[in-house]
Amino acid sequence: MPTRLYYADDQPAEYLNDFNGAFKALADARILTDIVLGRDLTMERLSAYRVLVLANVACLSDEQIAAITQYVAQGGGLVATHATSLYDELGNRRADFGLHDLLAVSYRAPVNYNTTFLQMTAGSLIAEGAPADNPLSLGTPQWKVEARPDADIAAWVVVPLVDYAVASRRITWGDPPPGMQTAHPAVVTRQYGKGRVVYFAGLPERAYFQRHYIHCRQMLVNAVRWAADAPPPVELAGGGGLKLTAFRQPALGRLVAHIVNLQAVPGHEVKPGPIEGAGQLNWAYPIEEIVPAHSVQVRIASDGNPPRRVYLAPEGTDLAYDVQDGWIRVTVPTVHYHTMVVVEGQAEG
Predict the structure, then answer these.
(1) 234-344, which class in CATH?
(2) Which of 33, 107, 155, 263 is the most buried (most CB within 10 A)?
(3) pTM of the predicted model, to two decimals?
């Protein structure tokens, strides 16, 4: 809430773009995600999660910072971007990130370009699945930060190509190409206590939401997976239009995984309108026709007990399954719009 109020005066859309971008990136990658409000940034609440993502959460109180630090020290993961913790809960600017000890970086200054790039370090796990040979566009600003010696640099800031000699006569249509690689870290990773931390000096979540840069989504997903230091408890293979959420019902001794199919026929799909901003509204047309998904594979972490039953709901159709290496594996024959995979005899995990 304080961060939203901080941005409300002159950048009303930025808070939502960053939040929505992070959530959309994880949802599109089918990583189970929950929303934690500022008042719930306590050790008691955070201990239920493997990773906390702070998408440009500029305003944090000292108490929230202490809880987040304790959470990571005891084994939690943290992914933070851009201005996270640079202001207190009242919007007062700190001299440095409130989380600087945890992030292993210190704020120095903005990079003086609205469009920037980053160059991934060879072999970086954060770049896995993303093109790493050339600088990657962020299309957003970045900070100049200084990393501590115990931090690992996963990427470096690259500024756009600018010809100062003819700046007054230069015409640029669209974003300029990448130019010089700087000595400023763009992505920093480190171990802290029993936990792991990833910091982005830029805003990959905003780039994904506004420009749908797939490499920005991939970097965020890689960061979350690395920070978690464990695979997700439920995984789904299949087309990108499939969405996943799951929850356990301990009192009933079962796990329920919801699969939603949003794979639309071309020309009959959701069409997003302009990004929310001054005088603009978001809109979307309804999906008119869905492409069924076939042979959808689901992997669920076992709690160590053999399932009593695995079936589709609401049909009640039993599903064949096998258990290998601590995972319950099932194949859903067809997902039209929505189905549920129910695993009975699984209360923990």
Answers:
(1) mainly beta
(2) 155
(3) 0.88
